[in-house]
# Entry
Amino acid sequence: MATWAIGDLQGCHAELRALLDLIAFDPDRDRLWFTGDLVNRGADSLGALRTVRALGDSAVTVLGNHDLHLLACRYVAGRKPRPGDTLDAILAAPDCDELLDWLRRRPLLHHDAARHTLLVHAGVPPQWSLAEALACGAEVTAKLAGPDFVAALTEMYGNLPDAWDDRLRGAQRFRFIVNGCTRLRYVTRDGRLDLAAKGAPGTQKATLVPWYAAPGRRSHDTRIVFGHWSTLRLTPDDERRFDVLALDTGAVWGGALTAANLDDGARRSVPALNPVPPDGD
# Structure
C-alpha cells in the first residue's frame, strides 16, 4: 500500500490519468491525497472533477481557491466565471449539482495523526497551532456542508481582515480562515497575511516572508503538504528545514504534475500536455 500526495490539478485531467499510470495506482491498495484546486484553467476541469470524485474512499482532497470559486459561480448571485476560467463545462453538465454537492463537503484541511502530516491547499497562518488550524478548518467545513452554505460563499471574497484574532466572528472570521488556508503565500514578520505577493521567494518586499518561514510559526512540529504556489521551487534541504512538502509544480502553466510518496519520499512527475499562459494565480 502506498499513499501519494498530488499537486494542483487545475483541470489537467490527461496529466492526472498519465500520472496514475506512472505510479501504478491501485484503488484497492493505494491512497491519494490531492492538494485542492481540482478545477479551472486546464483543458478538462469536468473530467478531473469526475475522476477524483469517482475515486471514493481511496482519495482525499482539500478545497482550494479555484474549487471555492467554482462553487460561488454556481450558487452566488452575480458571480460568474472570469476570462480564462474553464468552468463552463462543469456548470452545464447534467451532473453539475451532484458534483458540486460532493465538492462543497470536502474539508479545508486533512490531518493524518499517524504520519504527523497535515494536508492544506495553500498554507497555515503562523499564529495557529495544529489544533487551532484543525478547529478553524472544521468551522468552514461545517458551514459549507450546512444549509446556509450560499451565505457563507457570498462572504468569502475580500482580503480583509489580514490579522488573526480569535475574537473574530461571522463573515470576517470565515474569510480569514478561507484566505489563510486557500490563498496564503506570504506574511509580514508579525504574521499578517499579504495576499498580493505571488512571485517566488526573493521577489517579495523585504517586509514579507513565506508563510512556512514565519518567525515563531506554531505549526512547525507538523509536516505540512500543500500546493497553490506554482512559482515556488523548494530544495530538499528547504523542505527538511521547514518540514513542508510543496507540490504545485505548475502543470496547467506548462510545468509538470507531481506526486510524492508520503512513506518513502519518492517523487514522480508527468509533463504538461495542454499548458496555458501563466497568470500567477
Notes: The chain is about 30% helix and 15% strand. The two ends are 34 Å apart (CA to CA). Residues 143 and 152 are 7 Å apart (CA to CA). The chain has a mean pLDDT of 96.
